[in-house]
Protein backbone atom coordinates (compact mmCIF):
# COMPACT_ATOMS: atom_id res chain seq x y z
CA UNK A 1 0.00 0.00 0.00
CA UNK A 2 1.57 3.27 -1.13
CA UNK A 3 0.37 5.33 1.84
CA UNK A 4 1.93 2.84 4.23
CA UNK A 5 5.09 2.60 2.15
CA UNK A 6 5.67 6.33 2.38
CA UNK A 7 4.98 6.52 6.12
CA UNK A 8 8.63 6.85 7.12
CA UNK A 9 9.32 9.73 4.74
CA UNK A 10 6.08 11.56 5.51
CA UNK A 11 6.60 11.12 9.24
CA UNK A 12 9.79 13.16 9.06
CA UNK A 13 7.79 16.34 8.46
CA UNK A 14 5.66 15.89 11.58
CA UNK A 15 8.15 15.13 14.33
CA UNK A 16 9.35 18.60 15.24
CA UNK A 17 11.21 21.54 13.81
CA UNK A 18 14.95 22.00 13.23
CA UNK A 19 15.86 18.42 14.23
CA UNK A 20 19.26 17.64 12.66
CA UNK A 21 18.96 13.85 12.75
CA UNK A 22 16.98 11.49 10.58
CA UNK A 23 13.68 10.08 11.72
CA UNK A 24 15.25 6.62 11.65
CA UNK A 25 17.72 7.67 14.37
CA UNK A 26 14.91 9.23 16.37
CA UNK A 27 12.87 6.01 16.12
CA UNK A 28 15.81 3.89 17.25
CA UNK A 29 16.43 6.11 20.25
CA UNK A 30 12.72 6.16 21.10
CA UNK A 31 12.74 2.36 21.07
CA UNK A 32 15.77 2.33 23.40
CA UNK A 33 14.02 4.78 25.72
CA UNK A 34 10.91 2.57 25.88
CA UNK A 35 13.07 -0.40 26.82
CA UNK A 36 14.57 1.57 29.70
CA UNK A 37 11.50 3.30 31.18
CA UNK A 38 7.78 3.94 30.53
CA UNK A 39 6.95 6.81 28.23
CA UNK A 40 4.99 8.51 31.02
CA UNK A 41 8.29 9.17 32.80
CA UNK A 42 9.18 11.51 29.91
CA UNK A 43 5.78 13.02 29.17
CA UNK A 44 4.82 13.79 32.79
CA UNK A 45 7.64 16.30 33.46
CA UNK A 46 7.10 17.91 30.06
CA UNK A 47 3.39 18.46 30.63
CA UNK A 48 3.27 19.18 34.35
CA UNK A 49 6.70 20.16 35.71
CA UNK A 50 7.78 23.77 36.08
CA UNK A 51 10.72 23.15 33.74
CA UNK A 52 12.00 20.55 31.33
CA UNK A 53 15.11 19.79 33.42
CA UNK A 54 13.86 16.39 34.51
CA UNK A 55 12.96 15.44 30.94
CA UNK A 56 16.34 16.64 29.68
CA UNK A 57 18.01 14.44 32.29
CA UNK A 58 15.97 11.45 31.17
CA UNK A 59 17.04 12.08 27.55
CA UNK A 60 20.76 12.24 28.31
CA UNK A 61 22.37 9.79 25.91
CA UNK A 62 19.60 10.16 23.30
CA UNK A 63 20.93 13.08 21.16
CA UNK A 64 18.64 12.72 18.13
CA UNK A 65 15.51 12.32 20.24
CA UNK A 66 16.48 15.15 22.58
CA UNK A 67 17.11 17.46 19.63
CA UNK A 68 13.77 16.64 17.98
CA UNK A 69 11.90 17.44 21.20
CA UNK A 70 13.78 20.39 22.68
CA UNK A 71 14.39 22.25 19.42
CA UNK A 72 10.64 22.35 18.80
CA UNK A 73 9.55 25.97 18.48
CA UNK A 74 7.66 27.21 21.51
CA UNK A 75 7.42 26.40 25.20
CA UNK A 76 7.35 23.22 27.27
CA UNK A 77 3.86 22.22 26.03
CA UNK A 78 5.09 22.37 22.43
CA UNK A 79 7.92 20.07 23.42
CA UNK A 80 5.50 17.69 25.11
CA UNK A 81 3.34 17.62 21.98
CA UNK A 82 6.45 16.94 19.87
CA UNK A 83 7.15 13.93 22.10
CA UNK A 84 3.57 12.72 21.64
CA UNK A 85 3.88 13.03 17.85
CA UNK A 86 7.08 11.01 17.91
CA UNK A 87 5.37 8.33 20.00
CA UNK A 88 2.41 8.14 17.64
CA UNK A 89 4.55 8.12 14.50
CA UNK A 90 6.87 5.50 15.97
CA UNK A 91 3.89 3.21 16.56
CA UNK A 92 2.67 3.79 12.99
CA UNK A 93 6.08 3.10 11.45
CA UNK A 94 6.51 -0.09 13.48
CA UNK A 95 3.07 -1.29 12.37
CA UNK A 96 3.80 -0.60 8.70
CA UNK A 97 7.36 -1.89 8.57
CA UNK A 98 6.30 -5.09 10.30
CA UNK A 99 4.07 -5.92 7.36
CA UNK A 100 5.77 -4.44 4.29
CA UNK A 101 8.76 -2.51 3.00
CA UNK A 102 8.29 1.06 1.73
CA UNK A 103 6.99 1.15 -1.84
CA UNK A 104 9.42 2.53 -4.42
CA UNK A 105 8.11 4.95 -7.02
CA UNK A 106 9.54 4.95 -10.55
CA UNK A 107 9.31 8.13 -12.57
CA UNK A 108 6.45 8.12 -15.09
CA UNK A 109 6.32 9.93 -18.41
CA UNK A 110 5.35 13.57 -18.09
CA UNK A 111 6.83 14.09 -14.64
CA UNK A 112 8.87 17.30 -14.85
CA UNK A 113 10.32 17.70 -11.36
CA UNK A 114 12.29 15.60 -8.89
CA UNK A 115 12.91 15.55 -5.15
CA UNK A 116 15.42 18.26 -4.35
CA UNK A 117 14.36 20.53 -7.20
CA UNK A 118 13.92 24.19 -6.28
CA UNK A 119 10.88 25.53 -8.12
CA UNK A 120 8.85 28.69 -8.35
CA UNK A 121 5.20 28.25 -7.40
CA UNK A 122 2.82 30.32 -9.47
CA UNK A 123 1.22 31.89 -6.40
CA UNK A 124 3.45 31.21 -3.41
CA UNK A 125 7.05 31.73 -4.52
CA UNK A 126 10.07 29.49 -4.09
CA UNK A 127 9.72 25.91 -2.88
CA UNK A 128 11.61 22.62 -2.89
CA UNK A 129 10.13 19.27 -3.96
CA UNK A 130 10.07 16.51 -1.32
CA UNK A 131 7.67 14.06 -2.97
CA UNK A 132 5.35 13.47 -5.93
CA UNK A 133 2.36 11.48 -7.19
CA UNK A 134 1.63 10.64 -10.83
CA UNK A 135 -1.89 12.05 -10.36
CA UNK A 136 -3.68 13.82 -7.51
CA UNK A 137 -4.11 11.46 -4.56
CA UNK A 138 -6.19 13.76 -2.38
CA UNK A 139 -9.92 13.14 -2.00
CA UNK A 140 -12.15 14.99 -4.45
CA UNK A 141 -13.50 17.20 -1.68
CA UNK A 142 -9.98 18.58 -1.23
CA UNK A 143 -10.32 20.36 -4.59
CA UNK A 144 -13.46 22.12 -3.50
CA UNK A 145 -12.10 23.00 -0.08
CA UNK A 146 -9.01 24.57 -1.62
CA UNK A 147 -11.00 26.36 -4.33
CA UNK A 148 -8.58 25.02 -6.94
CA UNK A 149 -10.90 23.74 -9.63
CA UNK A 150 -11.37 27.30 -10.80
CA UNK A 151 -7.63 27.93 -11.27
CA UNK A 152 -6.31 24.53 -12.43
CA UNK A 153 -6.37 24.07 -16.17
CA UNK A 154 -5.32 20.41 -16.32
CA UNK A 155 -7.33 19.02 -13.41
CA UNK A 156 -6.41 16.07 -11.23
CA UNK A 157 -4.94 13.95 -14.05
CA UNK A 158 -1.48 15.52 -13.85
CA UNK A 159 1.46 15.06 -11.47
CA UNK A 160 1.12 16.55 -8.00
CA UNK A 161 4.02 17.40 -5.72
CA UNK A 162 4.62 17.74 -2.01
CA UNK A 163 6.74 20.85 -1.53
CA UNK A 164 8.24 22.95 1.24
CA UNK A 165 7.51 26.62 0.63
CA UNK A 166 10.14 29.17 1.55
CA UNK A 167 7.42 31.40 2.98
CA UNK A 168 5.65 28.68 4.98
CA UNK A 169 6.53 26.17 7.72
CA UNK A 170 4.51 23.15 6.60
CA UNK A 171 4.49 20.88 3.56
CA UNK A 172 2.05 21.76 0.75
CA UNK A 173 0.49 19.71 -2.06
CA UNK A 174 0.35 21.37 -5.48
CA UNK A 175 -0.21 20.61 -9.15
CA UNK A 176 2.55 20.46 -11.73
CA UNK A 177 1.05 23.23 -13.82
CA UNK A 178 1.67 25.72 -11.01
CA UNK A 179 5.40 25.00 -10.76
CA UNK A 180 8.42 26.02 -12.82
CA UNK A 181 11.99 24.80 -12.32
CA UNK A 182 14.38 27.57 -11.31
CA UNK A 183 17.63 27.86 -13.24
CA UNK A 184 19.38 29.28 -10.17
CA UNK A 185 18.36 26.83 -7.50
CA UNK A 186 19.58 28.60 -4.38
CA UNK A 187 19.12 26.75 -1.11
CA UNK A 188 16.84 28.40 1.45
CA UNK A 189 16.29 27.61 5.11
CA UNK A 190 13.23 25.61 6.14
CA UNK A 191 12.48 24.01 9.53
CA UNK A 192 11.51 20.68 7.93
CA UNK A 193 14.40 20.42 5.46
CA UNK A 194 16.52 18.23 7.76
CA UNK A 195 13.87 15.51 7.65
CA UNK A 196 14.13 15.16 3.86
CA UNK A 197 17.67 16.13 2.89
CA UNK A 198 21.12 14.81 3.75
CA UNK A 199 22.88 18.17 3.97
CA UNK A 200 21.99 21.62 5.23
CA UNK A 201 24.18 23.07 2.46
CA UNK A 202 22.09 21.66 -0.38
CA UNK A 203 18.84 19.91 -1.14
CA UNK A 204 20.39 16.46 -1.59
CA UNK A 205 17.71 13.80 -0.87
CA UNK A 206 18.28 11.69 2.23
CA UNK A 207 18.68 7.92 2.02
CA UNK A 208 15.05 7.44 3.10
CA UNK A 209 13.78 9.83 0.41
CA UNK A 210 16.03 8.26 -2.22
CA UNK A 211 14.72 4.80 -1.38
CA UNK A 212 11.15 5.86 -2.14
CA UNK A 213 12.11 7.96 -5.20
CA UNK A 214 15.20 6.12 -6.54
CA UNK A 215 15.39 7.91 -9.91
CA UNK A 216 15.24 11.46 -8.59
CA UNK A 217 18.68 12.11 -7.11
CA UNK A 218 20.59 11.63 -10.38
CA UNK A 219 18.07 13.71 -12.31
CA UNK A 220 18.10 16.68 -9.93
CA UNK A 221 21.91 16.69 -10.06
CA UNK A 222 21.99 16.94 -13.88
CA UNK A 223 20.60 20.35 -14.96
CA UNK A 224 21.53 19.74 -18.60
CA UNK A 225 18.90 16.98 -18.72
CA UNK A 226 16.11 19.17 -17.38
CA UNK A 227 13.14 20.86 -19.00
CA UNK A 228 12.76 24.30 -17.43
CA UNK A 229 9.39 24.98 -19.00
CA UNK A 230 6.19 24.81 -17.00
CA UNK A 231 3.56 22.27 -18.05
CA UNK A 232 1.50 25.15 -19.43
CA UNK A 233 4.44 26.33 -21.58
CA UNK A 234 5.25 22.80 -22.76
CA UNK A 235 1.70 22.14 -23.94
CA UNK A 236 1.16 25.58 -25.43
CA UNK A 237 4.54 25.71 -27.17
TrEMBL record:
Q: Where is the Hemimethylated DNA-binding domain?
A: 110-206
A single GO molecular-function term is: DNA binding
Top-level division of the source organism's lineage: Eukaryota
- Any Pfam family hit: YccV-like
Q: Which NCBIfam families match?
A: yccV
UniProt-recorded name of the protein? Hemimethylated DNA-binding domain-containing protein
What is the organism of origin for this protein?
Answer: Emiliania huxleyi (strain CCMP1516)
Amino acid sequence: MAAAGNQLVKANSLVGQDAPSSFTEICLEWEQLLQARPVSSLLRPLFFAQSGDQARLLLAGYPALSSAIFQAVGDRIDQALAALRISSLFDAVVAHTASEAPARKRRPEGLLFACGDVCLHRFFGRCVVVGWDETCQRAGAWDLGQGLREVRRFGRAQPFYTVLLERDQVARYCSQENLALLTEAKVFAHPQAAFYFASARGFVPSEALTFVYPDDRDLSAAPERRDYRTLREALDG
